[in-house]
Amino acid sequence: MSLADKLKDLVSLDGHHFETGNRRAKVISICSQKGGVGKTTSAVNLGSALAYFHHKKVLVVDLDPQGHVEKAVGSLVQGGVEYTPLSRVLTSKKAEILEAVLQTELENFHLTAGDKELIAAESSLANRIGREFILKLSMETARTHYDFILCDCPPSLGNLTLNALCASDYAILPCEMSALAFEGVSDILETFREIHDRLNDKLQLLGVLFTRVDGRNTTMNELIVDNMKKFVDGKLFRTQITVNTDLNKAQLEGLPIFHYAPSSSGAENYQALAVEVLHRVKEMQARQSSVKNQKLARSA
Predict the structure, then answer these.
(1) Which of 206, 212, 162 is nearest to 38 (CA)?
(2) What is the pTM of this model?
(3) Structural domain range at position 72
């Protein structure tokens, strides 16, 4: 029996057993080595767009010790609800990420709470056998209860980001529209390729997402896009997140952009991104299925 199979038979930390659901979540890591590029903004608003407009059941996992996910949608989270901190889930021998989940007022949109103890948890993971797969194992049952699980990674390439990428099917790399964008993407791509080759051959780059785009810098923007397209073999999202103060204001109010300013450019951008993500996932799954069938036909 594999470790994943054994996990399904475990009892959760508070003594409750989690039944297996009938969904098959796609896990997407949203990661960058640099801070301030819109990781949390993208995780929260992409996730809420998938739930609100496309009726997908979504879980956002906040792996950043700063806990910005919960702050960004705090007005939708009911206070006084008991949960297990994510740090405890990751450091326990019998762990289910479902223990750490909080529901929100937005139907089908859930998250894990902010947890400053993730700093200590990341250090302790270094001493665990199979440390790269702890998050993946804790998600086995959760994957059967959601359509999408989005991991908001910390701005580093440490054990938490490594765990997220080993648990993921896809990765989105947000970066600012600047000459320094290549620096932020370069290192994470190198780590990405190593993980794909050594630890998780299912991991695919869903795309690079340009954020905080100033539409007035047309010539420079086009130059950066053309060079980045070559750098990542064309895997750029057509959708770009433009500079929009409503996105910052929405976070201060603890609301997704669709609740705070539904007619803003930020809302339009993230609605378009959700459509593009759904299309791209479907397209990549179809391509994978075709390749698999071709291999089976050749071996028959």
Answers:
(1) 212
(2) 0.91
(3) 21-295
Cα separation, 248 vs 259, whole angstroms? 13
**3-class DSSP state of 294:** helix
Could you give phi then psi for residue 242, rounded to 5 degrees? -80, 160
CA proximity to 112, closest of 184, 64, 175, 165: 64
Report the number of distinct structural domains present in the chain.
1
- Which helix (H) or strand (E) covers residue 149, if one does? strand 148-152
Q: Is residue 39 part of a domain?
A: yes
- Find out whether 30 and 174 touch, Cβ atoms under 8 Å: yes
Name the residue with tokens 């994470």.
188
Could you tell me if residue 10 is inside a domain? Answer: no
Residue 139 CA to residue 167 CA, distance in Å, equals 8
In this structure, is residue 137 part of a structural domain? yes
* HSE-up of residue 205 (Cα within 13 Å, Cβ side): 22
pLDDT in tens, 207-263: 999 999 998 888 888 988 888 888 888 899 999 999 999 999 999 999 999 999 999
Q: What type of residue sits at position 72?
A: A
Q: Check whether 46 has a pLDDT greater than 90.
A: yes
- Tell me how far apart the alpha carbons of residues 10 and 96 are, in angstroms, rounded to a whole number: 9
The CATH number of the domain where 69 resides is what? 3.40.50.300
Cα separation, 266 vs 263, in Å, equals 8
pLDDT digits (tens, 9 = 90+) for 107-163: 999 999 999 999 999 999 988 889 999 999 999 999 999 999 999 999 988 999 999
Write out the E strands in 80-232.
Answer: 101-103, 109-112, 148-152, 170-176, 204-211
Q: How far is it, in rounded angstroms, from Cα 52 to Cα 110? A: 12
Give the span between the Cα atoms of 23 and 38, in whole angstroms.
29
Q: How many CB atoms neighbour CB 35 within 10 A?
A: 13
pLDDT at 16: 54
| Order of strands, sheet of 26-30, starting from the edge strand that comes earlier in the sequence | 101-103, 109-112, 58-62, 148-152, 26-30, 170-176, 204-211
Structure tokens at 184: 């932020």
